Amino acid sequence: MNAGAELVREIVEALNRGDVDGMLERMHPDFEWRPLEGSPVARVCRGHEQVRTYVEDWLSTFDGLRLDLDDPTEVADRVIAPVNGHGRGRASGLALETRFCQVWTIREGTALAMQEYASREDALDAIA
Fold first, then answer.
1. What DSSP line would sit under 2-42, residue for residue?
2. Which positions ≥6 away from 71 have C-beta within 8 Å?
3. Quick one: pLDDT at residue 32?
4. 41-84 pLDDT tens trace
5. CA dihedral (11, 17, 20, 22) positive or negative
6. pTM to 2 decimals?
7. Nearest to residue 23, comparing CAs of 10, 5, 35?
8. CB distance 80 to 73 below 8 Å
9. CATH of the domain at 58
10. Any bridge partners for residue 46, and if so which?
11. Which terminus, N or C, of the chain has the lesser number of Cβ atoms within 10 Å?
């Protein structure tokens, strides 16, 4: 696995452990997170403070929230990472099963940005 894909895997593994500090350590201080447009909480998060708030909101909303990466691929300074998301709504008890794709921008061993897309095809179209 290439260095960028390994970095993305480390970030997602930290998220899965609930280790927000460990996740943020691998992100640039001005990291920008652009969630899926259709998300009920879709807002661009910039910087560690906003990303922390966003991630902690998700972690407190779902029990057993887990993201599984499906063969991340590096294309220049980007990592295309298809994601399978799993969890259970803490209040509703409803199961969450979702599939989407993240595109990470990596430079000099640090994650600078990540944008989510509905599918791998949409992600590839966006960076073409």
1. -HHHHHHHHHHHHHHHT-HHHHHHTEEEEEEEE--TTSTT-
2. 82
3. 97
4. 678 999 999 999 999 988 898 889 999 999 999 988 999 999 99
5. negative
6. 0.92
7. 10
8. yes
9. 3.10.450.50
10. 32
11. C
Say whether pLDDT at 38 is over 80: no
Q: 């600078």: which residue's tokens?
A: 112
Q: How many domains does the chain have?
A: 1
- Separation between Cα atoms, residue 100 and residue 106, nearest integer Å: 19
Q: Which domain holds residue 108?
A: 3-127
Cα distance between residue 102 and residue 61, in whole Å: 21
Integer Rg of the chain from CA: 14
Cα–Cα dist 32/76, whole Å: 19
Secondary structure class of 94 (helix, strand, coil): coil
Distances (CA, A) of 107 to 26, 29, 31, 119: 11, 13, 12, 24
Amino acid (1-letter code) at residue 79: V
Question: Quick one: which of 77, 66, 65, 57 has its CA closest to 7?
Answer: 77
Distance CA 59, CA 30 (A): 22
